[in-house]
Automatic annotation (TrEMBL):
<dbReference type="InterPro" id="IPR009057">
    <property type="entry name" value="Homeodomain-like_sf"/>
</dbReference>
<keyword id="KW-0804">Transcription</keyword>
<feature type="DNA-binding region" description="H-T-H motif">
    <location>
        <begin position="39"/>
        <end position="58"/>
    </location>
</feature>
<dbReference type="InterPro" id="IPR050109">
    <property type="entry name" value="HTH-type_TetR-like_transc_reg"/>
</dbReference>
<dbReference type="Pfam" id="PF00440">
    <property type="entry name" value="TetR_N"/>
</dbReference>
<dbReference type="InterPro" id="IPR001647">
    <property type="entry name" value="HTH_TetR"/>
</dbReference>
<dbReference type="InterPro" id="IPR036271">
    <property type="entry name" value="Tet_transcr_reg_TetR-rel_C_sf"/>
</dbReference>
<dbReference type="Pfam" id="PF16859">
    <property type="entry name" value="TetR_C_11"/>
</dbReference>
<protein>
    <submittedName>
        <fullName>AcrR family transcriptional regulator</fullName>
    </submittedName>
</protein>
<dbReference type="InterPro" id="IPR011075">
    <property type="entry name" value="TetR_C"/>
</dbReference>
<dbReference type="GO" id="GO:0003700">
    <property type="term" value="F:DNA-binding transcription factor activity"/>
</dbReference>
<feature type="domain" description="HTH tetR-type">
    <location>
        <begin position="15"/>
        <end position="76"/>
    </location>
</feature>
<keyword id="KW-0238">DNA-binding</keyword>
<dbReference type="GO" id="GO:0000976">
    <property type="term" value="F:transcription cis-regulatory region binding"/>
</dbReference>
<keyword id="KW-0805">Transcription regulation</keyword>
Length: 204
């Protein structure tokens, strides 16, 4: 008979506790607008767990808030339609949709954090950069296939699309993310002046 004891692997992580902690962190961020003013004790109290429970999962606020923001992130849209224009519209529509969302509000707050600038750096790498990279890759494919003007400057196009998305969200609340994306992509990348789209213009 084998009497050798099986080593204990410890208690499995609770998905419910994980969700409660991440939600508590985001709720406090929305209320206080500053990571520096949020303690681990406050997060634990809001989540209804002990502080040790948090530290078993995350070594500090940098890792915790980075993970909290990534839980709000939607997967990138499936690309490969065969049309650079249609792929760009998909990406920009998602960006437009996210501009007025808990994700964007959390990103904006954390990117401006003076007490923990490394959080902004991580979020830029894990959340923002993949979206920008998708735009760059789509532009490159469109230029290679002759769909887009080879004179387009990818960085400038990205700034115009993202800045335009933010402007539409703030000023043209009656324009859907899909329509916003179509107008931006067609105007910035294809140079189409949509005279028939007067009702969609800001201030019209």
């Amino acid at each position: 008979m084998n009497t050798t004891a099986t080593p204990s692997r410890g208690r499995p992580r609770s998905a419910e506790a994980d969700d409660a902690i991440l939600s508590a962190a985001l709720d406090l961020l929305a209320e206080r607008k500053d990571v520096g003013g949020i303690s681990m004790e406050a997060i634990a109290a809001r989540a209804g767990v002990g502080k040790a429970t948090i530290y078993r999962r995350w070594p500090g606020k940098v890792e915790l808030f980075t993970d909290a923001v990534t839980t709000l992130r939607s997967p990138l849209p499936r690309l490969g339609t065969g049309s650079a224009r249609d792929d760009l519209v998909k990406i920009v529509a998602q960006i437009c949709d996210e501009m007025d969302s808990p994700l964007q509000r959390a990103i904006s707050t954390l990117m401006m954090s003076e007490s923990h600038p490394e959080i902004g750096t991580r979020i830029k790498r894990q959340v923002v950069a993949p979206r920008h990279e998708a735009v760059f890759r789509t532009l490159e494919r469109g230029i290679e296939r002759g769909e887009l003007d080879p004179g387009l400057h990818p960085d400038t196009v990205l700034y115009l699309l993202v800045g335009g998305a933010l402007s539409y969200v703030r000023n043209a609340t009656d324009v859907s993310p899909q329509r916003c994306a179509e107008l931006l992509v067609d105007t910035v990348c294809l140079g189409i002046d949509r005279q028939d789209g007067a009702d969609d213009r800001v201030g019209s």
